[in-house]
Amino acid sequence: MISLKDIESLTAFKRNTNEYVKKIKKSGTPLVLTVNGKAEIIVQDAESYQRMLELLDRAETIEAVREGLESVRQGKTMSLDLFDKELRKKIRAPKKR
């Protein structure tokens, strides 16, 4: 979560970029940069950003599995043969021999 101490102006960031980058890398906390008092940009270290992307990917995968399981519970399934037939028709692939 971003706190008030993690908000700075873009001008201050430009003047002291090296110091801010060190602080961001050490804390792993993103920094909100403002322009004319309005939040405009988030600066984050690469490791924390990658971790956030991995967590997002995991959450999306978990949600997709949950939705799939709910579809099965509701009986929204089809046989493998029917799926194969419909997919081949959709992508215009030759019929299975």
Walk me through what this model shows.
The protein has 97 residues and is of the alpha+beta class. It folds into two domains: 41 residues; 43 residues, no CATH class. 59% of the residues lie in helices and 14% in strands. It has four helices and three strands, in the order βααββαα. A three-stranded mixed beta sheet has the order 1-2-3. The relative contact order is 0.09. The model has no long low-confidence stretch (mean pLDDT 93).
Overall pLDDT metric: 93
Query: Which residue ranges are poorly predicted, with pLDDT under 50 across at least 5 consecutive positions?
Result: none
Helix share, percent = 55-70%
Shape: elongated
- For the secondary structure, the number of strands is 3
Count structural domains. Answer: 2
Structural class: alpha+beta
CA-to-CA gap between the ends?
57 Å
As a whole number of angstroms, the C-alpha radius of gyration is 24 Å
Q: Approximately how much beta-strand content do the residues carry?
A: 5-15%
Largest sheet: 3 strands, mixed
| N-to-C SSE string, H for helix and E for strand | EHHEEHH
Number of helices: 4
Strand order of the largest sheet: 1-2-3
List keywords for this structure.
97 residues; alpha+beta; 2 domains; three-stranded mixed β-sheet; elongated
